[in-house]
Amino acid sequence: MDIIQCAAVFDIRLDLVSLTHLKRLSVLQDLSTSELIQRIGAAGDAGAYRDLFLRYHDRLVAFAGHITHNRFTAEEVVSDVFLRLWINRGKLEQIANPNLYLYIAVRNAALNARDKERRHAHLPEAHSEALAAGSASDPEQLLLGREAGGRIEAIVNRLPAQCQLILRLVKEEGLRYKEVAALLGLSVKTVETQISIALRRIDRQLQPAGQTSLN
């Protein structure tokens, strides 16, 4: 099934009524995200693609909205990410962590959209570039904001995937622990623990050789 046929079966820009109807019709909701990705990548399964969209749409739009501060732009960002995901479905089996991939892809697209809107609003070029700091062309990587140093960036990039994502959502996007927990389907306690692990590791690795952290 090509992208035109897929769009006919499943319009990415569905209204809420259609989304509710599709949720009732879904027969693949018990599959894990990894299993849905496998079906999409291996067989071009439009049903699995639909279910993946329904599973992530609302939370990804909410996530993008924290960056764009514009519901319409957030909707467009998520739609575009899913459209590219379908077009590049042959490469999906290379994704080790689909959940992380989707959030990073949406984050990068949202940052790009925000930067474009602010450039159109005639912000000074230097300020626009600063606002875009952290956007990455590779959705497997995230960059820290403009105030982060190279050493901290390197340390954060070496954190486990989930730990890294949680830290960035809290420290870069300014989300509360409760919001991150809801976005990622985790408990607040897990978010707190991951933040603590990340900060201890950063603190420890920033200490000069032979010096012990006070924490």
Brief synopsis:
The protein is an all-alpha fold and 215 residues long. It has eleven helices and no strands. The protein folds into two domains: 92 residues, Rna Polymerase Sigma Factor, Chain: A (Orthogonal Bundle); 59 residues, Winged helix-like DNA-binding domain superfamily/Winged helix DNA-binding domain (Arc Repressor Mutant, subunit A, Orthogonal Bundle).
Architecture overview:
With 215 residues, the protein is mostly helical. The chain folds into two domains: 30-121, Rna Polymerase Sigma Factor, Chain: A; 149-207, Orthogonal Bundle (Arc Repressor Mutant, subunit A), CATH 1.10.10.10. 67% of the residues lie in helices and 0% in strands. Helix 4 crosses helix 6 (98-120). The longest helix has 23 residues, at 46-68.
